[in-house]
UniProtKB/TrEMBL annotation:
Official protein name in the record: FAD-linked oxidoreductase
Keywords on record: FAD, Flavoprotein, Oxidoreductase
Pfam families reported for this sequence: FAD-oxidase_C, FAD_binding_4
Molecular-function annotations in GO: oxidoreductase activity
This protein's record includes keyword Oxidoreductase: yes
Flavoprotein among keywords: yes
Family of this protein: Belongs to the FAD-binding oxidoreductase/transferase type 4 family.
EC number(s) recorded for this UniProt protein: 1.-.-.-
Record organism: Cupriavidus numazuensis
Domain FAD-binding PCMH-type: 41-221
Enzyme class at the top of the EC tree: oxidoreductase
PANTHER family in UniProt: D-2-HYDROXYGLUTARATE DEHYDROGENASE, MITOCHONDRIAL
Cofactor: FAD
Length: 472
């Protein structure tokens, strides 16, 4: 912890490089900067919140903090689930929220250049207004920011067709811990001029540098979308339906969301405003989308695919959305998870990857292990599945935030992930929540290399100390 004299001098230097609205300190710090979505509030506040307006100001702030050995926590939209953006007492928050805007849409290159604080929805809307699609999509689209999406390598609903956030980033600009600006706003898909430095920052959760701008790849805007909800008897049928749909629809399947019976029953009976398009009682439900350009032909192909799946016994029932409004109501089922922190609290939320063919057995094995330890636990499973991603939420009736055993639940869950050769994080990062379990998914040699990279880029360990991996 810095001395009062050092803190006073630090704040004075920061105030000199930021405008009056760019620095909050003491009682002026807004509570919203003190935690992300799932993390507990640290009892001690950050020493200040810096809100730069440009890359130059980010550079100046980090150079000052590096000289003072002041810990810095970059923040985006604060929708993270791993605790990386939650400041501990005495740390300085670096909020990118004022660095917003789409700087350019290059219709010939099919790219968009954006500032890091731009919300995902703003980027999507700007792309759509220019007759393009920015394909990354997730429930927090209205709040999460592009810089945070890149820093956590966000996934979302359409990975099976378009890939993760990493696959959308052609170039980026980042500021290192000492204030050095590394800019490579490349618009080309092919660029093999030495090391691909952008990959150092994508998925690094702010531990290696602060992303300030990015060039994003755009996709052609679909002319139509077909959406259906299907009921299935088994997990094997879920996988068979995925492959059947991908073959019959020639790569046009853009979303494939699997919901176990426990999830479907929970959201359709206990979340206000969510209706059940199909009766409860099936072991599995799948929400799938086709994106195409010819409503007539694509609609016919979609229905033919479903009919063939029904005849083959892969699905037992299906509801096809007849309008965009009805499709949106189907998606409310999947997006209802956003209500869990309110109506099902406290709960432990997990985001893991398991090889697609093993997800069904993994879910059964995990349920048995959790119920053996906590017989009254409620557990739901849901996920994208087509990209190996499974989400799990565990709720223990009667527990409060003070006695909820999240770490003990993690000690049951993550060894199961390792047993099935999976990853402890599919798309939400490591942060502080998963750091004790990183060795379940990374070898000692890989961890040593991560530490070497961290020490090289941030020798004073000021960027997000204590997150992802310890270097001391």
């Amino acid at each position: 912890m810095a001395s009062p004299q050092d803190t006073s001098a630090l704040l004075a230097e920061l105030a000199a490089v930021l405008d009056p609205a760019g620095l909050q300190a003491g009682d002026a710090i807004e509570t919203r900067f003190r935690k992300d979505w799932y993390a507990p509030l640290d009892p001690l506040p950050p020493i200040a919140v810096a809100r730069p307006r440009s890359t130059a100001e980010v550079s100046a702030v980090l150079a000052i903090c590096n000289r003072y050995r002041q810990a810095v926590v970059p923040q985006g939209g604060l929708t993270g689930l791993a605790g990386a953006a939650t400041p501990a007492g005495g740390e300085l928050v670096l909020s990118l929220e004022r660095m917003r805007g789409v700087e350019e849409i290059d219709t010939q290159a099919g790219t968009m250049t954006v500032m890091a604080g731009t919300t995902l929805q703003a980027a999507q809307d700007a792309a759509r207004a220019s007759d393009w699609l920015f394909p990354v999509d997730l429930g927090a689209r209205g709040s999460c920011q592009i810089g945070g999406n890149i820093a956590t390598n966000a996934g979302g609903n359409r990975v099976i067709r378009y890939g993760m956030m990493r696959d959308q980033v052609l170039g980026l600009e980042a500021v290192l811990a000492d204030g050095t600006v590394v800019s490579s706003l490349n618009k080309m898909q092919k660029n093999n001029a030495g090391y691909d430095l952008r990959q150092l920052f994508i998925g690094s959760e702010g531990t290696l540098g602060v992303i300030t701008r990015a060039v994003l790849r755009l996709a052609p805007l679909p002319g139509c979308t077909q959406t259906a909800l299907c009921a299935l008897r088994s997990y094997d049928d879920v996988v068979a339906l995925l492959r059947h749909a991908q073959r019959r629809l020639s790569g046009r399947v853009s979303a494939f969301e699997a919901m176990w019976a426990d999830f479907y029953e929970l959201v359709t009976t206990r979340v206000p405003g969510v209706r059940a398009p199909l009766p409860a009682g099936a072991p599995f439900y799948v929400l799938l989308d086709l994106q195409g350009n010819d409503a007539g032909q694509d609609g016919a192909a979609f229905e033919s695919m479903l009919e063939a799946a029904m005849e083959a016994g892969l699905i037992t029932d299906a509801a096809v959305a007849a309008s965009e409004k009805e499709a949106a109501s189907f998606w409310k089922l999947r997006d209802a998870v956003a209500e869990f922190p309110v109506m099902w609290a406290p709960n432990a939320a997990y985001d893991v990857s398991v090889p697609i063919g093993q997800i069904g057995r993994f879910a059964e094995s995990l349920r048995a292990a959790v119920l053996a330890r906590w017989p009254h636990a409620e557990l739901v499973n849901f996920g994208h599945v087509g990209d190996s991603n499974l989400h799990i939420s565990v709720y223990l009736p009667g527990c409060t935030a003070d006695d909820f055993p999240e770490h003990e639940i993690s000690e049951v869950l993550y060894p199961k992930v390792r047993e099935f050769d999976g990853s402890i994080s599919a798309e939400h990062g490591i942060g502080t929540h998963k750091k004790p379990f990183l060795g379940h998914s990374r070898t000692p040699e890989a961890l040593a290399l991560m530490r070497l990279i961290k020490r090289s880029l941030d020798p004073n360990n000021i960027l997000c100390p204590g997150r992802v991996i310890d270097v001391d």
